[in-house]
Amino acid sequence: MISYKPFYETLFRRDLTEYQLIHTHGVSAHTLYRMKKGEAITTKTIDVLCDILNCDVQDIIIHI
Predict the structure, then answer these.
(1) Contacts of 1 (CB under 8 A, 6+ apart)
(2) What's the mean pLDDT in 10-31?
(3) What pLDDT sits at residue 63?
(4) What confidence category does residue 17 fall into, taking pLDDT thresholds of 50, 70 and 90?
(5) Which residue intervals define the domain HTH cro/C1-type in the entry (predicted)?
(6) Count of alpha carbons within 13 Å of 3, Cβ hemisphere only?
(7) 51, 60 in Cβ contact below 8 A?
(8) In 3D, which of 60, 26, 25, 34 has the Cα closest to residue 46?
(9) Pick from 25, 63, 64: which is nearest to 45 by CA?
C-alpha cells in the first residue's frame, strides 16, 4: 500500500498549503483529492511535486 503521509509532512515543513499548490503551482485539485483518498497518482505528478517542494520521492510517498 502507498501512503502519502510524507507528502503532507513535507508540505507542512515547507510552509505551503494545498491552496498554494493549486493556485500558484498549477497542481490539480483532483490530484490532491486522490492523494487524500490514498489513490494512485502518476510518476510524472510525483516528479512535479518533488520539483515544487525541492525534495526526494521518499518525501512524497512511502510503501507500507
Answers:
(1) 38, 63, 64
(2) 96
(3) 94
(4) very high
(5) 13-64
(6) 7
(7) no
(8) 60
(9) 25
CA angle 58, 53, 47 (to 5 degrees): 60
Q: What are the pLDDT digits (tens) for 45-59?
A: 999 999 999 999 999
Q: Is 42 helix (H, G, I), strand (E, B) or coil?
A: coil
Binned at pLDDT 50, 70 and 90, residue 7 comes out as very high
Report the alpha-carbon distance of residue 26 to residue 2 in Å, rounded.
Answer: 23
Which residues, including other chains, have CB under 8 Å from residue 39's CB and lie 6 or more apart?
none
8-state DSSP, 1: -
Whole-angstrom distance, CA of residue 20 vs CA of residue 22? 5
Give the C-alpha separation, 64 to 18, whole Å: 24
Q: If we measure between CA atoms, which residue out of 14, 1, 43 comes closest to residue 31?
A: 43
